[in-house]
């Protein structure tokens, strides 16, 4: 029993009536989530911790071990859901400084998530003189960012390796049957892993999309899946009032009070990328149809000296969800000073983790005093089981939260708009009408 | 002439009347900024690009050269404004991967901005077998996070160096006369640099606070100051309708339309920490008295596959400020494929920077179509002069923007609340009444 949800600190911020009114939406939301559905509803993540293909899992571990053995660097090519989960998990389990630290596993860099030539040039320079493997992740293989990066990376590899060697160093995670990347992989006889048809990008961290890079950093991916399965079982046993659903209900209560921003707060710098993953999960699932809570994130105590002022005293349009870690990997004790130069002598000999938790509690009380409701999610420590639990907790919560809000939490219709415009401006075939329209707009704007 | 502000893409989102009504607040705001003031008003940053102490600047360069020569790692101890500016500048000028890249300047890690024992333990392990220097930055020397880190770091150094060597490796940036850190530095005869009395943390990047770590990464700090001076001169020459002030007016126009969130958008991953610095500058300056625009940030195109859905189609409570870079350091050309496997053959041979700018323009048009006003700030390239211009542009804008909003942009009264609670919970002398009050609250909450 690792992850707990605590609503007690937020009690003063809503009435029983408000809670009940929103909670009425929960039963139909839960029913929608549990209903049989076809593949296009993208609910495949729901059963995943139990249904996972055991053979695929063993293959992931085998390939991860090979990469660990023959590579200094793993380049992961993917954008959005095709990299945020893996990066989050690696930093959570190891460290935000994973790549810089001494270790016997490869450095892992995420590319193909930007069009910046400078950034790509930096990555190329990091690869100089190193043995690299590549995991290219794309459902279709035609996602522009990652497809371009894959072109660059293959050219980079051609300078280092023979054709036969390259085939042993590229691993493809894609559709099981169709798509540009699948066709390419089959023709070149590259090792492939499957992105299930019914799992969307932001729900894909518990598939090969996330699990292969995570396994390369040395993490135990069975334990992650076991944590997710535990969470599913526990929430189901708790019934309709389960902790994940209570989190979902309270988010919607605060939204109905015009608190449009949710800030995910952590006191561990190595949680930062988890917050980025969470921002995608919640923002992309709920932000549609003119609705949705805007997801933001801070790391305290550092950001208490940045956004802390706003949270304490700015516009009252927000609430906080504090992620609290209760155990550390390495305890430290505040060292004594011969002379108490900094006035902190009263802390000498205290556990640093205890100072951190007093900062958390002091801040929580200060912010609730300032009119900001605080929800709390506790986990024990940064290990695989807690990670799996956290991931599945957020999956469950965002699914019913989106349904309660009246949106489809599993689509992302708004993501196409920029792509269409970009293709038109780049002169892609089939976009000439839109191109004319945009050119007219731009010429009116003086371009 | 490097940094430009463009409001043309936002024209349809406000009427001339709305603009004029808000602009009436600009003349008094400008007058307030220019008025003679005492040191407690914290407007020292205003004249800094011209008034900078030339001797101090030479000393910064001399010390930076020494650190470059005898250190593998520089540890910068500071929190909030005492590290965000330097980190932002180093990543902007060099790379988000600065520490990982091959170079002849030291790695630079920022510590003392968290109470996490795990994070500190990671940093200690990075220092193993390396020669380190330390720059400890604190006005008072009693800021808890950085004072504790300084205790740990001195114990770490005692294991590596003699007392005499340590004195040569610790550099103190603090008050010119008083405070715990100043007293300590004087007693130990450590080299000190000055945080001017009338410059607040979030406005301190152009003092020794920012300039020493920035110089260590090999940047030309004279050019940064020259860029800031250029910006000041240019905005003054443009008069009351200058670009920085227009940005401030439009922010307040959108705020009056209940657009409570400003998203700073960049297409360069190495701009990410600049956005963190910007979030502190704007959030801490304006978020008070129940008011203020909430500052958020994204890096596109990656976050188009994360927060892009929300921005395109979620709650219409936001506007975007797009930071556009027009020149790259390393151009790349999209490589051809023998077979057009990814359907991107039409891009082969194109500049990657041109794909990036089409993505920017396509996204801007999509988001404005979706009801999100877009402001644009253009700069030429990631160099010292552009950095100085950008910094000073934002300083000017936030100062008048805060005054127009009716707040004091140079204080941060809300930052004390968490500190008081934390000290009380940690049992510090003088906080016993508050301690009782908090203990009562916590026991009611079941602690």
- The percentage of residues in β strands of chain A lies in 5-15%
Shape of chain A: globular
Q: Give the largest interface.
A: A-B, 137 and 137 residues
Overall pLDDT confidence of chain A: 95
The total of helices of chain A stands at: 18
CATH architecture of the largest domain in chain A: 3-Layer(aba) Sandwich
Q: How many separate domains of chain A?
A: 2
Query: How far do the termini of chain A sit from each other?
Result: 59 Å
Low-confidence stretches of chain A: none
CATH class of the largest domain in chain A: Alpha Beta
* Major sheet strand order of chain A: 1-10-9-7-8
Helix content of chain A: 40-55%
Q: Name the CATH superfamily assignment of the largest domain in chain A.
A: Glucose-6-phosphate isomerase like protein, domain 1
Multimerization status = homodimer
Largest sheet geometry of chain A: 5 strands, mixed
Q: What gyration radius of chain A follows from the Cα positions, in whole Å?
A: 23 Å
| Helical/strand content category of chain A | alpha/beta
Q: Would you tell me which CATH topology of the largest domain in chain A applies?
A: Rossmann fold
Order of helices and strands of chain A: EHHHHEHEHEHHEHEHHHEHEHEHEHHH
Counted beta strands of chain A: 10
């Amino acid at each position: 029993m690792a992850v707990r949800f605590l609503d007690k600190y937020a009690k003063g911020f809503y009435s029983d009536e408000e809670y009940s009114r929103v909670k009425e939406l929960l039963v139909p939301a839960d029913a929608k989530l549990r209903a049989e559905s076809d593949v296009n509803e993208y609910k495949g993540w729901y059963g995943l911790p139990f249904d996972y293909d055991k053979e695929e899992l063993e293959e992931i571990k085998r390939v991860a071990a090979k990469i660990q053995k023959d590579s200094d660097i793993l380049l992961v090519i993917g954008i959005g859901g095709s990299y945020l989960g893996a990066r989050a998990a690696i930093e959570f389990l190891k460290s935000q400084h994973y790549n810089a630290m001494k270790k016997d596993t490869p450095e892992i860099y995420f590319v193909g998530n930007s069009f910046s030539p400078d950034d790509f040039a930096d990555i190329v320079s990091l690869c100089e003189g190193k043995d690299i493997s590549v995991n290219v992740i794309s459902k279709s293989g035609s996602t522009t960012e990652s497809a371009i990066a894959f072109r660059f990376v293959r050219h980079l590899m051609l300078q280092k390796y023979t054709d036969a060697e390259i085939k042993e160093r590229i691993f493809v995670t894609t559709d099981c049957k169709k798509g540009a990347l699948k066709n390419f992989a089959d023709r070149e006889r590259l090792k492939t892993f499957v992105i299930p048809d019914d799992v969307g990008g932001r729900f894909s961290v518990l598939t090969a999309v996330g699990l292969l890079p995570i396994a390369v950093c040395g993490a135990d991916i069975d334990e992650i899946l076991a944590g997710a399965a535990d969470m599913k079982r526990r929430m189901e046993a708790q019934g309709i009032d389960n902790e994940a659903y209570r989190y979902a209900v309270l988010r919607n209560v605060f939204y109905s009070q015009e608190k449009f921003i949710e800030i995910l707060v952590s006191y561990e710098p190595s949680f930062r990328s988890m917050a980025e993953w969470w921002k995608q999960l919640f923002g992309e699932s709920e932000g549609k149809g003119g609705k949705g809570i805007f997801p933001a994130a801070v790391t305290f105590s550092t950001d208490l000296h940045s956004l802390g002022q706003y949270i304490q005293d700015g516009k009252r349009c927000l609430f906080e969800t504090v992620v609290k870690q209760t155990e550390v990997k390495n305890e430290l004790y505040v060292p004594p000073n011969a002379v108490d130069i900094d006035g902190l002598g009263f802390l000498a000999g205290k556990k640093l983790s205890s100072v951190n938790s007093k900062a958390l509690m002091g801040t929580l009380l200060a912010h609730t005093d300032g009119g900001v409701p605080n929800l709390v999610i506790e986990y024990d420590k940064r290990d695989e089981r807690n990670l799996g639990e956290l991931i599945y907790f957020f999956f469950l919560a965002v699914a019913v939260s989106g349904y309660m809000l009246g949106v489809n939490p599993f689509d992302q219709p708004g993501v196409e708009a920029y792509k269409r415009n970009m293709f038109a401006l780049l002169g892609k075939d089939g976009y000439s009408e839109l191109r004319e329209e945009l050119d007219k707009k731009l010429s009116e704007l003086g371009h």
